[in-house]
Amino acid sequence: MKNSYTVTNRFTLALIILSFLLALIPKHMLAQDFKKQTKWGGRLMIDATHYDYNDAQVTGLEVRRARFFSKGSVAPRISYKLQLDFAGGKVAFKDAYIRCGNLPYIGGNMTIGNQTDPLSLEQNTSSKYITLMERSLPTSLFHKRAAGIGYSNTKLLHGRLGIQASWLDPLGGSLKAPNLKGYTKSATIKISAMPWLKSNDNLVYMGVGYSTRTLDNNLAFKVHPESHLAPTAISGAVPQVSSYRLLNFDFAWVFHALSIQGEYMTNAYQQDAGQSATAASFYGTISYFITGEHRHFKNAASGFSRIHPKHNFDPANGQWGAWEVALRYASMDLSGLFDLNPIRDITLGVNAYLNPYTRVMYNFIRSNYGTADKMANIHQVRFQIDF
Fold it and tell me: In this predicted model, what pLDDT tens digit does every residue of 33-47 receive, in sequence order?
């Protein structure tokens, strides 16, 4: 009851701030004949996985994502998005927010509702556009979306500088973090820069994010290899944790068909007894389009976007779509929390873009599961379409 009352007060304050900013908009900038705009769409991702670990071989098939969304504008500066996921036979909110864009005097936009934590470039990139089937190990240790209020401005210095900030409450919101328990609230700020921006296929991106979180319970989490159907590698709890801080550095370089992307994240846990513990994780990905396309960087808030093949898949006319190969190395060191070796994953991927809305993916993952003498070999395939 206390938590619900507190969350209500916080959102009331956020609505007051948003109302104040809307009141500052000059009347001549509010078009009286504005026509509402609405778009409907969704995505479907079907995965098949075979893994071999500890003398056990298992094959599985799942609907990884089955999402429908509606988004649009109801006024010149007011937009919304509502996205639901039906995978696993359950209905879950993903994006569910109201946004005020092009704020007067300060620029950027303010978002209220269920939204993405801005800490990580890879997390900011939609699952429709990530290079490999699953996001990397570092994203396992913070919530992906939660209800709250956020601010974003990626157009400073003609798009070369960006700032994002959020205050999120995963326990008070409609969506809880699937891999984490114990969060009560979080505050995040991220600064991004484009030190080199010659063209959309010749650029360098750099970002640094800091997040602090307070807790009212033990921090419990679980970590998978970079495969959704694979068994859990680590499932544990850090007792009597009062606060949790993250520092993340991310980087991306696009040079025509070649792309390199990476992140390094440190995690510091403060326990009630005054003791502290740390964890660190990172990944590096290199990808190359053998058919000459390139990755499209949108901005720091949205990450990378859609690939448009030079020629859509049409074997009858000798056209085979776009083909991409990728390699990722990821590591997570939790030795400050548990007595185990670092988790290390190596992922090899091949992507076939049949057209801008259809993709077939193959990943091979070799993971040590945090042990010195046991390795897992994972093969997985995804059939993906969005509309």
Answer: 678 889 999 999 999
Do the beta carbons of residue 374 and residue 54 sit within 8 Å?
A: yes
Separation CA 119–CA 150 (nearest Å): 12
Nearest CA to 30 among 74, 87, 71, 62? Answer: 74
Show Cβ contacts of residue 376 under 8 Å, excluding neighbours closer than 6 positions.
Answer: 51, 52, 53, 54, 225, 230, 365, 366, 367, 368, 369
pLDDT tens-digit series, residues 112-170: 999 999 999 999 999 999 999 999 999 887 777 888 999 999 999 999 999 999 998 86
Which residue in 299, 318, 321, 302 sits closest to 310, CA to CA?
Answer: 321
Q: How many CB atoms lie within 10 A of CB 292?
A: 11
Using CA atoms, how far apart are residues 212 and 367, in angstroms rounded to an integer?
A: 30
The fold for domain 2-26+37-386 equals Porin (2.40.160)
Angle, vertex CA 130, rays to CA 178 and CA 192, nearest 5: 90
Residue 228 falls in which region: left (phi positive, over 0), alpha (psi -120 to 50) or beta: alpha
Contact 140, 224 (CB under 8 A): yes
pLDDT, residue 334, reads 82
pLDDT digits 0-9 by tens, 346-387: 999 999 999 999 999 999 999 987 666 678 899 999 999 999
Domain spans in the chain, listed from the N-terminal domain onward: 2-26+37-386
Euclidean distance between CA atoms 171 and 183, whole angstroms: 7
Q: Are 188 and 168 in contact (CB under 8 A)?
A: yes
Contacts of 47 (CB under 8 A, 6+ apart): 61, 62, 63, 64, 133, 228, 229, 380, 381, 382
